[in-house]
Amino acid sequence: MRARVAVFDALPVFRLGVLTCLKDNGFEAETPDDVLRWTEVQDRAVALLSVCEPPDWDLLADLCHRRVEVVVIALLDEPTVPAYLRALSAGAAAVVPRAATPKALRDAVEAVLDGTVILPVTVLRAMASQLSAASTTPTGDPPTPAEIDWLRQLVQGSTVAQVAKRAGYSERMMFRLLHDIYERLGTSNRTEALIRARDRGWI
């Protein structure tokens, strides 16, 4: 079953435009009024959340940490490199300029559903620079051989669902196991964890 997609933005005309774009590309999309309530009842879903005002950042962080089954794409009103990094650190699975083209938006949604992410090179360089400057001491035990294999599968393009199936876990449990690995590596998301694992020669 394809994931449900919801659009959350303060402007009704913008919501309608994004909704139309998504539906034209075969997504089952909607514009519910309450983003937090909507996420509580979804099994596999993507929430597109516009981040335009200071309270939107708090909502983004809250939304990203509520349920692992719901992935969040931040739509940035001001898509600067620091804003990208802030959104990713808050837990966004992907970040797209709010003024993105319909194709860029569709590609971002397709990417997160495939377990990948599309980011500008300048953002990736900034992330790599931050990781190099950060302490290389992990916060817990290093990954086991099985966990390294999971990370290797992700880097090779497997989705979390595919990794879970091969390992004999549910997709929900695999999300939790991967999140634990990210924390032990001292990272806050998949992209940072894969970069750190690559830098250590594990993948």
UniProtKB/TrEMBL annotation:
Signal peptide: none
Protein name (database record): Response regulatory domain-containing protein
Listed InterPro entries: CheY-like_superfamily, EvgA-like, Sig_transdc_resp-reg_C-effctor, Sig_transdc_resp-reg_receiver, Tscrpt_reg_LuxR_C
PANTHER family (alphabetical): HTH-TYPE TRANSCRIPTIONAL REGULATOR YHJB-RELATED, NARL SUBFAMILY
Keyword Ribonucleoprotein annotated: no
Keyword match Phosphoprotein: no
SUPFAM superfamilies: C-terminal effector domain of the bipartite response regulators, CheY-like
Domain of life: Bacteria
Domain Response regulatory, first and last residues per copy: 4-113
Keywords: DNA-binding
